[in-house]
């Protein structure tokens, strides 16, 4: 406890004793609201997700669940902050002095941080974006845990990521670009890109082959798209189609087959229309909730140097998104690094 609360007089009738009792009472209230449990001696560290607008976000409930189960709720708290892109870099430099240990970044701040931070982890350099900022002793460090989250989600769902696979990428925007790069870096033998924007596909192909020269990259055409998708070992749906409950599947049943693995980055529903169609043809399916979970788990470890309780984080996410627990009782509370 702070030296201000040391005992200077033990006589109950003295002014010193009364002042000390008053201060101790105040300290107890502060312990409840802002500090570590009595005796730990420092203020609670803050974590947050930054965005603009920030709106509804699942990050606070996911991280708070892990903090509570691990007994760290007295040491850390996780909130959210609305920060505009033009004020991001200034705000990031202010946060450590306000007690922040690290932050997540969401749209539209990831690229701003990538351009503005002087220190970047290789994960951010590869993807050209920052979603996690570590407030290290020697300054701010930008990380990107999305790629890790993607590969970890594949391993969890199917027992493997993308090594030696032929991969069909449906949608080559920001999310599609990131997962295509990660699949190539993980050792995929071939990538087929499918997008309505030809220039977007050309730019992504060039970037992939610059970073991973050995991988084969081709474009899907309207005439060959169904065949190319059906032949793929792993299909990744990275377009925004499916975010609405009544969105149709972008591909018909002829695009899928038994033994195939189909991953949809959308997680609002346990199964999108595309996943239902793929499932009907015997494909293994999974949605993007695992990616959200594991990118958050990696960020948690970066900030705290403690492995999170993944089971608690999953429970919080699934309860919030689906209103039920889809993986209850599995006991998995570890993250393999």
**So, CATH architecture of the largest domain?**
3-Layer(aba) Sandwich
Q: Please indicate the percent range of residues in DSSP E strands (runs of 2 or more).
A: 15-25%
Distance between the termini: 37 Å
Cross-sheet strand order for the largest sheet: 2-1-3-5-6-4
Shape, per Cα inertia axes: globular
What are the key terms here?
337 residues; Rossmann fold; 6-stranded mixed β-sheet; disordered N terminus
Describe the protein's architecture and organization.
The structure is a single chain. Strand 1 (45-51), helix 2 (59-69) and strand 2 (76-82) form a beta-alpha-beta unit. This protein has three domains: 3-33, no CATH class; 45-144, 3-Layer(aba) Sandwich (Rossmann fold), CATH 3.40.50; 148-288, NAD(P)-binding Rossmann-like Domain (Rossmann fold, 3-Layer(aba) Sandwich), CATH 3.40.50.720. With 337 residues, it is α/β, with parallel strands linked by helices. The chain has twelve helices and twelve strands. Helix content is 39%, strand content 17%. Helix 6 crosses helix 11 and helix 11 crosses helix 12. The strands form two sheets. It has a six-stranded mixed sheet with strand order 2-1-3-5-6-4, sandwiched between helices.
Short description:
It contains twelve helices and twelve strands. The chain is an alpha/beta fold.
């Amino acid at each position: 406890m702070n030296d201000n609360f040391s005992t200077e007089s033990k006589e109950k009738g003295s002014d010193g004793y009364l002042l000390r009792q008053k201060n101790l009472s105040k300290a107890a209230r502060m312990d409840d609201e802002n500090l570590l449990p009595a005796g730990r001696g420092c203020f609670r560290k803050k974590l947050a997700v930054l965005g603009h607008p920030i709106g509804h976000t699942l990050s606070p409930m996911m991280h708070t669940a892990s903090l509570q189960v691990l007994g760290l709720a007295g040491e850390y708290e996780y909130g959210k902050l609305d920060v505009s892109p033009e004020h991001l870099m200034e705000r990031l430099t202010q946060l450590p002095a306000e007690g922040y240990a690290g932050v997540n970044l969401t749209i539209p701040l990831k690229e701003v941080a990538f351009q503005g931070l002087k220190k970047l982890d290789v994960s951010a350099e590869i993807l050209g974006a920052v979603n996690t900022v570590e407030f290290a002793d020697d300054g701010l460090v930008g990380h990107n845990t999305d790629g890790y989250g993607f590969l970890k989600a594949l391993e969890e769902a199917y027992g493997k990521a993308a090594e030696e696979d032929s991969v069909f990428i449906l949608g080559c925007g920001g999310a599609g670009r990131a997962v295509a790069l990660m699949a190539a870096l993980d050792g995929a033998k071939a990538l087929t890109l499918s997008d309505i924007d030809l220039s977007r596909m050309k730019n992504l192909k060039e970037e992939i082959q610059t970073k991973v020269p050995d991988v084969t990259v081709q474009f899907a055409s309207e005439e060959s798209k169904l065949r190319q998708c059906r032949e793929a070992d792993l299909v990744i749906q990275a377009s925004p189609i499916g975010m609405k409950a009544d969105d149709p599947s972008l591909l018909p049943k002829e695009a899928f087959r038994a033994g195939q693995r189909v991953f949809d980055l959308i997680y609002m529903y346990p199964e999108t229309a595309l996943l239902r169609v793929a499932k009907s043809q015997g494909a293994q399916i999974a949605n993007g909730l695992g990616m959200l979970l594991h990118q958050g788990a990696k960020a948690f470890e970066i900030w705290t140097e403690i492995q999170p309780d993944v089971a608690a984080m999953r429970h919080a996410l699934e309860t919030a998104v689906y209103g039920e627990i889809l993986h209850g009782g599995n006991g998995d509370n570890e993250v393999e690094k």
